[in-house]
Amino acid sequence: MPTQSQPLAGKVALVTGGAGGIGAAISRELAGAGARMVITYRDNRARAEALIASLPGSGHRVSSASVLDSPALTALAQEIAREQGRLDILVNNAGITRVVPHADLAALDDATIDAIFNTNWRGAFATVRAFRDLLAAHGEGVIVNISSIAGNTAVGSNIAYCASKAALDNMTRSLARALAPAIRVLSIAPGWVDGEYAARADPAYLQQQIARTPLGRIANPKDVALAVLAVCGALGFTTGAIIPVDGGRPLG
Q1: Interval 208-242: pLDDT, tens
Q2: Does 246 map to a domain?
Q3: Has residue 91 been placed in a domain?
Q4: Active site (annotated) includes residue 161
Q5: Considering 41, 161, 197, 205, which one is annotated as catalytic?
Q6: In a domain, 187, yes or no
């Protein structure tokens, strides 16, 4: 049963791309709140298994189901239904990008565009499609799409990435309408997040972004994870919203 310290006790949560920096932080927060975790990974099973072993609680598992493989997602939904009997939370965290200057149209080739949209948008939609019935079964399902303020500001690693996050936010609103009231759907939209990607950025440019951010720093993965936890629990009457986790960066 849920308690004040474990509001998600008895619930099952799935995080796609859960072994990465943001995904791992989300998994830790949800597990700490009592959820049993299912974590998918693309190609780093050892990292995913190490994360699972470190999570509080029990009953956690990993799966190699890719968001690009719809039959594998369907099979995973059937496994979760059989083994766990429910799915309450889906976090669409899997995503890819690479840096391409916005003015360099030739460098943003078709293969890169397709890869970004296939993972960042089609993969998220395919995952929702596969798990919709499980999420709706108890009438209190939650889908959280990990987006980016790039979907609104159009400033990001490349034009296709910005467009894919705008499409993800649009899908959030569409699904919030289509799947209500059994499932709530929200986007969490970080700005810069401290981690592997930020570590590869030009330090001078990153300091400029920090200087222009009212709260004086970039986000860390836990900031994003706590926002996910909030919409899964305390913000129970919120749906269709795009929630920024950016320190007020667009105000700078």
Answers
A1: 989 999 999 999 999 999 999 999 999 999 999 99
A2: no
A3: yes
A4: yes
A5: 161
A6: yes
